[in-house]
Specification:
Elements lengths: L1 E4 L4 H12 L7 E4 L10 H6 L7 E3 L5 E3 L1 H11 L10 H29 L13 H24 L10 H16 L8 H11 L2 H4 L4
Parallel strand pairs: 1-2
Antiparallel strand pairs: 1-3, 3-4
Length: about 210
């Protein structure tokens, strides 16, 4: 299978971490997409992914799958290892709930701030900016950080006792926050400790088990 992405971007990082967690990185060919020159908006790429976004998964039968949650679901089901999406019905529901909260409230919110209220990726790519909206979304990201800190006061990970795709999404969101200069308040000690713990995982640090 192939992954069309940009190494180092937040959403591609989510899929790369998921692959590493399942020990499947070598099962995938990574195809770089020249986002900075608009390749993701070309007719050729849109034929693969109408969302005009990365990452995008291409299966051997020609199926294309976009959206990180859907790609992670596929990876989780296709490869052996502990589930990233939850084992029981309850676990799956909680993981999906927390993943969505981390996605829309943190990662996407930071993205909206970056793309609307800062120069972002430059004038050729950042069209139809709305600074007021971007700054509002920054405040949402900061509120979500506080919410996640509270969750982590009661749980080892965002979905409960085990590492899941919700943790991957939140970790990528905080990395994006660093890049966009959205500060993680120092009083969010549970979130900061969790982040350090996740950073030490081989799938994130790149260190072998």
């Amino acid at each position: 299978m192939k992954i069309y992405d940009v190494e180092g971007f937040p959403n591609p990082a989510r899929v790369r971490i998921a692959l590493a967690e399942k020990g499947a990185t070598n099962e995938c060919e990574f195809v770089p997409v020249d986002v900075m020159n608009g390749e993701h908006r070309s007719e050729t790429f849109r034929a693969k992914n109408p969302d005009a976004s990365v990452p995008c998964l291409e299966l051997e039968d020609g199926t294309y799958i976009s959206q990180c949650t859907a790609i992670t679901e596929y990876i989780d089901g296709a490869f052996d290892g502990p589930s990233l999406c939850g084992a029981s019905a309850k676990e799956r529901a909680v993981v999906h709930m927390m993943n969505r909260r981390a996605e829309i409230g943190l990662l996407d919110a930071v993205g909206d701030y970056f793309h609307h209220a800062t120069p972002g990726l430059g004038p050729e790519l950042e069209t139809h900016q709305n600074a007021e909206w971007g700054n509002h979304r920054k405040s949402i990201a900061q509120s979500t950080m506080s919410y996640l800190d509270g969750v982590l006061a009661e749980n080892a990970y965002l979905g409960g006792d085990t590492f899941s795709m919700a943790d991957i999404t939140a970790y990528a969101g905080l990395a994006f926050a660093d890049f966009a200069k959205v500060e993680v308040p120092s009083n969010l000690t549970n979130l900061i400790a969790w982040r350090q713990k996740v950073a030490g995982r081989p799938s994130v640090s790149g260190e072998p088990n």
